[in-house]
């Protein structure tokens, strides 16, 4: 592995050198971090980001997948690029992609269809479908940042990604052509970009709930400055990222660990009162079942049935004590309330606070009204959690609505998550990055 890695680094380095001959100023610049906008799609509630790829350069929209293992794009439709290169079998890039598979496509050669190519399994978790796809390299262009504004564009000449077929786009936000995986493995965007630019293997997401103003994704370390001049990286609480010993991917080989991000929720409190839970469900069993993960492809937090029941019962009781009355559920939510008697606060509707207690009772991810509640109309607001049934693979999946306006920084080198809790308490939001370029 070590020697494979150094070969990769070398080839990227060589490529930089040859580019240097023509555009010296641009390529000798080394960014300390990169920034991407992340726009919530109103129809699907997916988070969509934009990158530039190929020669000539095209801008593509892809759905963000925190647990995804790489960038995959539809190569069957409209993939035109003079710099596209399939990754051959048994090369260092192929082992970096975690693959030892070798395939031949029998149709006429084109992007996504070549012979002697390294294969992986691009996955669309929205429709729970994986299929085989060719590993390839092409130019990827991103935007650097000083932490406050977008700066000049930077290029990764041979970014490794996978080709998917057009049908794998089913269920994805309109106008998107693939998914951008941010998982912990080597060819996911965080590690590949960190090694291309020699910065820390850290990245941060700050999702906006607005379907008009984008949130932000940073690769590299902070500052992550949000208007009015608040460094969201300065007030993080840290917890360990846990490794699920059994892969959660659609297709994987025996013995493979999960590349997704799990944290150790030990208990849950509603209005500061512990909820009685079957704690066995909070850790992994020998098949990797159980535990808590973070997901950007689930719009709302999904709780295993008995946890859902316990948390919602506690929430209903505590709400009743505040004279907040329950009304009929509105799908997909079962627990809804009249908005009468619900005051508005800086942190959203004034409802009982839900705390995810982590390694000890002082390390708490607090969920306030803006992250727990969803207004379905002016008169009704619902608890934005859904029932995941009785035998889900993962007991707690913290979903998009609960992540919005929270900064989450993932440090892959130390396997640590930094989380801010609601930035609304610091008088800013994830839509407050200043996207005016200073390039
Ligand atoms: C793919 O085709 C090459 C010749 O082009 C052949 O040598 C190789 O064995 C084939 N591989 C598979 C897996 O069929
Ligand atoms: C707790 O959950 C585990 C795992 O699903 C199950 O085997 C066990 O029976 C549960 N315990 C109780 C008391 O329900
Ligand atoms: C709830 O309503 C009752 C009766 O109207 C009132 O006595 C009580 O003070 C209210 N409680 C709160 C927390 O507002
Ligand atoms: C955003 O950044 C630009 C460029 O630095 C600056 O001119 C502008 O004042 C900033 N906007 C706000 C609201 O601070």
Automatic annotation (TrEMBL):
Residues 1-25 form the signal peptide. The keyword Secreted applies. It is found in: Secreted, Extracellular space. SUPFAM superfamilies: Acid proteases. The lineage of its organism: Eukaryota, Viridiplantae, Streptophyta, Embryophyta, Tracheophyta. GO terms for cellular component: extracellular region; Golgi apparatus; plasma membrane. Residues 47-420 form the Peptidase A1 domain. This is OLC1v1007371C1. GO terms for biological process: proteolysis. GO terms for molecular function: aspartic-type endopeptidase activity. Belongs to the peptidase A1 family. Pfam families: TAXi_C, TAXi_N. Keywords: Secreted, Signal.
């Amino acid at each position: 592995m070590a020697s494979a890695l150094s070969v990769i680094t070398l080839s990227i380095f060589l490529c930089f050198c040859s580019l240097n001959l023509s555009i010296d100023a641009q390529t000798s610049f080394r960014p300390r971090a990169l920034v991407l906008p992340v726009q919530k799609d109103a129809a699907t509630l997916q988070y969509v980001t934009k990158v530039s790829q190929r020669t000539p350069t095209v801008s593509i929209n892809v759905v963000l997948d925190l647990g995804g293992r790489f960038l995959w794009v539809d190569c069957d439709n409209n993939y035109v690029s003079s710099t596209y290169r399939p990754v051959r079998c048994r090369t260092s890039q192929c082992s970096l992609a975690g693959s030892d598979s070798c395939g031949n496509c029998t149709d006429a050669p084109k992007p996504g269809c070549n012979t002697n190519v390294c294969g992986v399994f691009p996955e669309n978790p929205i429709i729970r479908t994986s299929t085989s796809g060719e590993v390839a390299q092409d130019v990827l262009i991103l935007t650097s940042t000083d932490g406050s504004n977008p700066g000049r564009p930077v290029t990764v000449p041979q970014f490794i990604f996978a080709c998917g077929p057009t049908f794998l786009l089913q269920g994805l936000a309109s106008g998107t052509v693939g998914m951008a995986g941010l998982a912990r493995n080597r060819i996911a965007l965080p590690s590949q970009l960190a090694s291309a630019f020699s910065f820390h293997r850290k990245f941060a997401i700050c999702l906006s709930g607005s379907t008009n103003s984008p949130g932000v994704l940073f690769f590299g370390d902070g500052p992550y400055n949000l208007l009015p001049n608040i460094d969201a990286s300065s007030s993080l609480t840290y917890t360990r990222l846990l490794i699920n010993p059994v892969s959660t991917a659609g297709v994987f080989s025996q013995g493979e660990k999960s590349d997704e991000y799990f944290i150790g929720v030990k208990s849950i409190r509603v209005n500061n009162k512990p909820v009685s839970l079957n704690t066995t469900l909070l850790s992994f069993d020998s098949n990797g079942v159980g535990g808590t993960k973070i997901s950007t492809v689930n719009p709302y937090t999904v709780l295993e049935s008995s946890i859902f029941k316990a948390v919602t019962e506690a929430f209903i009781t505590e709400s009743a004590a505040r004279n907040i009355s329950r009304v009929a559920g509105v799908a997909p939510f079962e627990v809804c309330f009249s908005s009468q008697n619900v005051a508005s606060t800086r942190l959203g509707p004034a409802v009982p606070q839900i705390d995810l207690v982590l390694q000890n009772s002082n390390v708490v991810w607090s969920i306030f009204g803006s992250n727990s509640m969803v207004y379905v109309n002016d008169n009704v607001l619902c608890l934005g959690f859904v029932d995941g049934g009785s035998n889900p693979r993962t007991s707690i999946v913290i979903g998009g609505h609960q992540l919005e306006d929270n900064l989450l920084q993932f440090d892959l080198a130390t396997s640590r998550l930094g989380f801010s809790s609601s930035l609304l308490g610091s008088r800013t939001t994830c839509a407050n990055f200043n996207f005016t370029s200073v390039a």
